[in-house]
Amino acid sequence: MKLLSIAVPCYNSENYMRKCIDSLLEGGEIVEILIVDDGSSDNTAQIADEYAAAYPSIVKAIHQENGGHGAAVNTGIQNATGFYFKVVDSDDWVNKEAYMKVLETLEHLLGGDKSLDMLISNFVYEKQGASRKKVMQYRHIFPVGEMFGWEQIHHLPKGKYLLMHSMIYRTRLLKECGLELPRHTFYVDNLFAFEPLPFVKNMYYLDVNFYRYFIGREDQSVNEAVMIKRIDQQIRVNKLMVDAYEKYDLRQKELNKYMISYLDIITTVSSMMLIRSGTDEAMKKKKELWDYIRSTDRRLYRKLRYGLLGRAVNLPGRGGRKMSVAAYKICQKFYGFN
Q1: Within its chain, how far is the Cα of 130 from the centroid?
Q2: How far is 196 from 200, CA to CA, in rounded Å?
Q3: Measured CA distances, 338 to 17, 135, 216, 227 (Å)
Q4: Three-class SS of residue 92?
């Protein structure tokens, strides 16, 4: 059994996937690399097959009809044989020194008396044209270098959230919790970083800058103009996160608080993109989103609507919408929008 399975969703990735895969190959034989070609029309499939032929004991090439990022991640989970599971997008890469430390830590914890459910590490925004690289680290939030539970997390400031880039899950946990990301939908990485959390009991934070998150392509899904164009998919993910939260009776106070805070940020992002769109149709969609939250879970609605961010994105009139830019700045800090 492999130690770590890494899924690499690829769609028309011929120009950058080699850098990603080459960085992952540094892990050697204890790693399984699942290259999921999601119906690409360029040379992605051929490149995947080349790697599978050159490294048959490490790389597996999987070809499927186009289903979007979520479908590729689902395929990765279904085919994973490793004890732990990570997603690395095809335009991103990992740092070799940190990678070695991650693998060493996972191997050490595998023999412990408690099962590790999630390993957390730092990631770096490799923003195109930026002279200084922003690092998302958690050293003042989580205990460093030890196993811990939700009760040991007391406060996560706005902007300090677990994203897909910072997370490695236990593979069986993902399968047992029934995670299935929607097809043909962007922004599903938020569901990946949110929906399994009620099943996570034991965590470990490794303070290394492991994942390198490239950001800056004009067609990238977190580009603001692209987000506005795809706002219906952002709203869909937002609603699915509300559904996932409402499904569980979260008696663990710190976990409940964290999941509400995450939803606060995501709903703010959705609302701000609709405000930035500036159309009457967008304003109707914004109202419909907030009405959906209220009809699904009134307690959650009150927490979100009457918190600082909820008030900021629901100020009345054109003047109120202009004032909402302050909330948008928080979202920029969190997501690193272009």
Answers
A1: 22
A2: 7
A3: 22, 16, 7, 11
A4: coil
CB 194 within 8 A of CB 79: no
CA-atom Rg of the chain in angstroms: 20
Report the pLDDT averaged over residues 10-18: 97
Task: List, in sequence order, every beta strand (DSSP E) within the chain.
Answer: 4-10, 31-38, 59-64, 84-87, 93-94, 118-127, 134-136, 147-148, 167-170, 203-215
Structure token pair of residue 197: 């959390």
* pLDDT, tens digit (0-9, with 9 covering 90-100), for 111-159: 777 899 999 999 998 877 667 788 999 998 999 999 999 999 877 777 7
User: Angle at CA 212, nearest 5°, toward 32 and 90?
Assistant: 55
Give me the residue label for tokens 């408690």. Answer: 114
Given this model, what pLDDT does residue 327 score?
56
Q: What confidence score (pLDDT) does residue 133 get?
A: 83
Q: Which two tokens stand for residue 46?
A: 């051929």
- The whole-angstrom separation of Cα 164 and Cα 31 is 19
